[in-house]
Design goal:
IUNH; hydrolase; Inosine-uridine Nucleoside N-ribohydrolase, Chain A; alpha/beta; globular; nine-stranded mixed β-sheet; purine nucleosidase activity
């Protein structure tokens, strides 16, 4: 499956969430996915930092062959995506859909890390970070007819990073840069779960819903209205953990 990963990687920026890097590693290590491009978006860090962080991480992984886009991210999505994993704010995805509305017809699978439905938000009592960073873009993407799978905090908070004991240069680099995050109380694998759900949709239990995004980023799911998304309500944690352990931990 030809996939584009749209991301706001923080690994390399002090204090920023580094977990996007693990999600990228999972995508690149999975034979089910052919990563045609990685597109960077502002969110977790400013756009220049996201691009620099992604560049360094691809170098560490030995994957400089993968095209990386920042200012031309929307064009890269239009040109390369047959599946799309969006693990940052949806600014680039909305721009790509504006540039070429027929993209909707070409995308076979869209998975978005975003939303908080039956659980509290992580930037306010009701809002999740990615949707809150660009709520207009999030609503535009939901209104485009893609019917994406939304991997929200409801299921992401079921995932935890296992203990990492670096055994490779990549792992040593990750530990050196992401030490405070690794030392936190069970870091969640938000973005890695979205990538995993792209590889194996059966990991998630989903329900159709009409999702709207308030101006503050709050996501509301109406299960009685015509659906514009599939909202994840459950996750097979054991199967996800096994996939992550098989594909990512050996790199570290």
């Amino acid at each position: 499956m030809d996939v584009v990963v749209d991301t706001d990687p923080g690994l390399g920026t002090p204090g920023a969430d580094p977990e996007d890097a693990l999600a990228l590693a999972l995508a690149l290590a999975s034979p089910e996915l052919r990563v045609r491009a990685i597109t960077c978006v502002a969110g977790n860090v400013p756009l220049p930092d996201a691009f620099a962080n992604a560049t360094r991480w691809l170098e560490r992984l030995g994957r400089q062959d993968v095209p990386l886009a920042a200012d031309d991210a929307a064009r890269a999505i239009v040109e390369h995506a047959r599946a799309l994993v969006a693990i940052g704010p949806l600014t680039n995805v909305a721009a790509a859909l504006r540039a070429d509305p027929s993209l909707v017809e070409r995308l076979e699978r869209v998975v978005i890390m975003g939303g908080a439905f039956a659980v509290p938000g992580n930037v306010s009592p009701t809002a999740e970070f990615n949707f809150a960073e660009d709520p207009e873009a999030a609503q535009a993407v939901l209104d485009a007819g893609l019917r994406p799978t939304l991997v929200g905090l409801d299921v992401c908070h079921e995932t935890r990073l296992p203990t990492v004991r670096p055994r490779t240069p990549v792992g040593a680099y990750f530990e050196a840069v992401a030490g405070p995050w690794l030392a936190s109380d069970g870091p969640y694998l938000y973005d890695s779960l979205a990538v995993a759900a792209t590889i194996r949709p059966e990991l998630l239990t989903v329900v159709p819903a009409r999702v709207t995004i308030a101006p503050d980023g709050t996501s509301v799911a109406d299960h009685d209205a015509p659906a514009n998304a599939l909202v994840a309500t459950g996750v097979d944690v054991a199967a996800f953990d096994a996939l992550f352990a098989e594909r990512v931990l050996p790199l570290l």
